[in-house]
Amino acid sequence: MTYASFWKRAAAYLVDYFISSFIALIVGFVLGYVLVQMGVSNAVSRLVTVLLGLGIFIGYFVWPESSAWQATIGKRIFGLKVTDENGQRISFWRSLGRYLGFIVSGLALGIGYLMCLWTERKQCLHDKLANCLVVDIKPDEKQGCVIGLVSGFFMLFVLLIVGVLLTIVSHPFERTLGNMAAKNLEAARRVQNAYYKEHNQYATRWNQLNFVEECNNEASNRCALTRLFTFELEPEGVAAQREDPRFSYRLFRAYDLNDTRRNLVCISKDERVKAFCRGLVERQAVSAPQAQR
After folding, report:
1. Percentage of the chain lying above the pLDDT 70 cut
2. Which residues contact 239 (CB under 8 A, 6 or more apart)?
3. Contact between residue 134 and residue 95 where contact means Cβ atoms under 8 Å apart
4. Beta carbons within 8 Å of 112's beta carbon, 6+ residues apart
């Protein structure tokens, strides 16, 4: 029985980390879009996203290593598999324990991962905690290093391609978000105007207005309507800030007691986002006459 080297294990983990992260990224992106469309609150959407991401990582590592494969995709590429100390297939629960031990290895300043460099059977801390071994069915140290380097450069290239594709896909997503924020802003402005007609002054806190559930209990002028936008009551109007440092802009609608002023202001320091703002304002200007009828 040949025990897996540190370098092969590191290369295999690099492949697995890329694949599992890619899956979590795509699923999280789609889920985020769906939750925004449904108007799910900030706290709930964040909790669901975190739990789903955790489930994807656990499922990706735990299930394959306890299956007939006895390995994740990365380990299979490098000819590695996980066994118990007798060389037998491990159960699902032991695989789960090994994964939890993997977290412990990281908490120990990463020393738990390096233990396979000096332990007799090249076991990391999480291997020892679960009484497991990682064996090499293709023992070739030089080949493992070369494949590791090649796979690393390949994944960097793929990440670049994925980044470009996500940028292309994100434009329709951002347009949908911007249109939704503009509509919410208009709704908030109308509610604020109605409050003025009844109290002869504008509300300064969201809990004075019957707007949406997320804002009804907010005793301040700011409200995170979703995890993507923060709405704010200002003396002259209502504003919405896009909460994303990579795509940041601010929307503003002024108060008007006659409900006729529909001009939307969109401000950003990023030239790329400024072009998006112009398109958003133009779309809202076209839809405004329809809303008046």
Report:
1. 77
2. 185, 231, 232, 250, 251, 252
3. no
4. 101, 104, 105, 106, 124, 125, 126
- Of 242, 241, 252, 251, nearest in space to 174 by CA: 242
Spatial separation of the C-alpha atoms in residues 119 and 279, rounded to whole Å:
61
Angle, CA of 233, 201 and 192, to the nearest 5°? 45
Angle at CA 9, nearest 5°, toward 4 and 13?
155
Q: How many residues does the chain have?
A: 293
What is d(CA 132, CA 95) in angstroms, rounded to the nearest whole number?
A: 9
In whole angstroms, give the CA distance from residue 151 to residue 247.
31
d(CA 8, CA 141): 8
Residue 135, φ and ψ in degrees, nearest 5: -105, 155
- Which pLDDT tens digit goes with each residue over 80-132? 888 888 888 888 888 888 888 887 877 767 788 788 788 888 888 888 888 88
Round the average pLDDT of the chain to a whole number and report it. 78
pLDDT digits (tens, 9 = 90+) for 163-207: 655 554 455 667 777 888 888 888 888 888 888 888 998 988 988
Q: Are strands 132-136 and 237-242 parallel, antiparallel or unpaired?
A: unpaired
- E-state strands within the chain: 80-84, 132-136, 222-223, 229-233, 237-242, 250-254, 264-267
Q: Show the CA angle centred on residue 241, arms to residues 177 and 237, nearest 5°.
A: 110
Distance (Å, rounded) from C-alpha 245 to C-alpha 150? 33
